[in-house]
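$ ./design --mode recover --in tokens.txt
reading tokens...
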């Protein structure tokens, strides 16, 4: 994810821009009505995807039966048990930073939209627990150590094989007091705190364990400040290198701890550090590396409920985020393709589409309950408008796009051909392909296909190569899929 500069936002709206917004919405509604999607089926498949990404010893109720146990000795070289968790994408590395963000967003999806998940709610909760069980193992030795990665990315990316067959290095990487990582630690604290809310009534004992650990991890993150990519550059860069700084993760972690615990100390921390930790930076950025838009939307819920007047600056930022993504008046950082897809520069655009759409939908609900709308120059962004914008993005993903294909492999009649997990019992490590793209190209027709998945997506002109060597467009990730779970849950109940 590319570094984004701080910008100010003009909320003035010319009549031409207002007309362009209305035209976009009319076209969006026409396209959506022409589609008619089975959001329940897509929801089921979006949750099933996480079972395909599982690492460790699989449970008896594993639904994707072609997957088997894998990486059963992870952590042994460091004398710890780090089995379990998720492979984040098409490789076999367990990257702690995006995995924690995935669990935060999946927990948020369950919190806000679990009531719309029907029979899939239990599977979504299991998906959260599979990740948090691993995060508990990774944080067991905090503050002395927090384990943030298992596997050597260079070794893994030079070898195309299934996780069940892998023979690449399973090196363990950690941060500690002398080698800080406030970014990954802050996100891990957020994930544990958010999940504690999910399990509060379902499993109170587990919920307390998650919250207690979140408090300890956040304390370590705040006391020993620094970016983990400075401590572990050769291991985590350029894969999940923190280019945005660790400050947003500290605010993000504190916000979730306040929501989970209700402790005033975290609210005071947020107020005290609002400027120091740059809450107003890049307000329309949200993903594994930059939490600013998410921070502002999350905290704004309390402001809209009339419970936090001292946090009103966060609502101003959240309103600015909303205005900055409206078609016709969006900030230069945000574009819309001719087919209506939200687009931000950088790799795997669907991560922006699903994460920002999730925030649009979540904020629309908060506004609805407070009977509010967001003033954007000469018009208002109403809750219904924000819902339509979010739905347009979901429908584009599912097939309402110029190419007429679904970007969720396994959903619909015509979809992207799929990403492979490597042929069964094959080792394509010798000779070692020189690049990740070459590794992708070696996948054969006999390889197992990972479905369902949501891929990286098309470019700003709606073009999509549908070819494995273009891995930034065709590779799935857990953090692209997690916010989609919440979106699909809502629209399955409100089509």
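writing sequence...
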């Amino acid at each position: 994810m590319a570094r984004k500069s701080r910008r100010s936002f003009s909320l003035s709206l010319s009549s031409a821009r207002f007309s362009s917004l209305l035209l976009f919405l009319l076209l969006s509604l026409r396209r959506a009505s022409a589609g008619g999607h089975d959001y329940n089926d897509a929801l089921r498949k979006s949750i099933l995807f996480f079972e395909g990404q599982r690492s460790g010893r699989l449970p008896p109720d594993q639904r994707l039966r072609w997957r088997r146990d894998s990486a059963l000795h992870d952590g042994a070289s460091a004398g710890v048990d780090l089995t379990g968790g998720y492979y984040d994408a098409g490789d076999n590395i367990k990257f702690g930073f995006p995995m924690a963000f995935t669990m935060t967003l999946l927990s948020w999806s369950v919190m806000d939209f679990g009531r719309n998940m029907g029979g899939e709610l239990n599977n979504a909760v299991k998906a959260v627990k599979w990740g948090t069980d691993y995060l508990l193992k990774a944080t067991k030795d905090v503050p002395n150590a927090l384990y943030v990665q298992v596997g050597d990315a260079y070794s893994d990316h030079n070898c195309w094989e299934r996780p069940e067959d892998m023979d690449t290095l399973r090196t363990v990487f950690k941060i500690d007091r002398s080698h800080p990582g406030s970014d990954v630690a802050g996100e891990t604290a957020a994930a544990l705190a958010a999940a504690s809310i999910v399990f509060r009534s379902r499993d109170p004992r587990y919920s307390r364990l998650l919250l207690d650990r979140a408090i300890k991890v956040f304390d370590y993150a705040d006391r020993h400040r620094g970016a983990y990519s400075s401590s572990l550059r050769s291991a985590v860069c350029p894969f999940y290198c923190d280019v945005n700084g660790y400050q947003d993760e500290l605010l993000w972690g504190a916000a979730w701890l306040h929501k989970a615990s209700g402790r005033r100390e975290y609210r005071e921390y947020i107020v005290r550090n609002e400027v120091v930790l740059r809450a107003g930076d890049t307000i329309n950025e949200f993903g594994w590396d930059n939490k600013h838009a998410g921070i502002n939307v999350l905290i704004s819920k309390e402001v809209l409920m009339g419970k936090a007047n001292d946090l009103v600056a966060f609502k101003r930022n959240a309103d600015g985020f909303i205005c900055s993504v409206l078609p016709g008046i969006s900030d230069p950082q945000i574009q819309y393709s001719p087919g209506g897809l939200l687009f931000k520069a950088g790799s795997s655009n669907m991560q922006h589409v699903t994460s920002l759409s999730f925030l649009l939908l979540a904020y629309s609900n908060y506004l609805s309950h407070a009977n509010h709308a967001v003033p954007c120059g000469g018009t208002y962004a109403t809750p219904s408008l924000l819902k339509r914008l979010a739905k347009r993005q979901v429908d584009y993903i599912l097939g309402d796009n110029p190419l007429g294909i679904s970007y969720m492999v396994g959903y619909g009649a015509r979809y992207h051909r799929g990403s492979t997990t490597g042929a069964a019992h094959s080792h394509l490590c010798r000779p070692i392909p020189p690049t990740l793209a070459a590794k992708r190209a070696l996948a054969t027709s006999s390889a197992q296909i990972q479905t369902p998945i949501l891929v990286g997506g098309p470019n700003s002109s709606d073009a999509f190569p549908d070819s494995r060597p273009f891995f930034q467009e065709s590779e799935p990730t857990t953090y692209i899929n997690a916010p989609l779970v919440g979106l699909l849950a809502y629209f399955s109940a409100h089509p």
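exit 0
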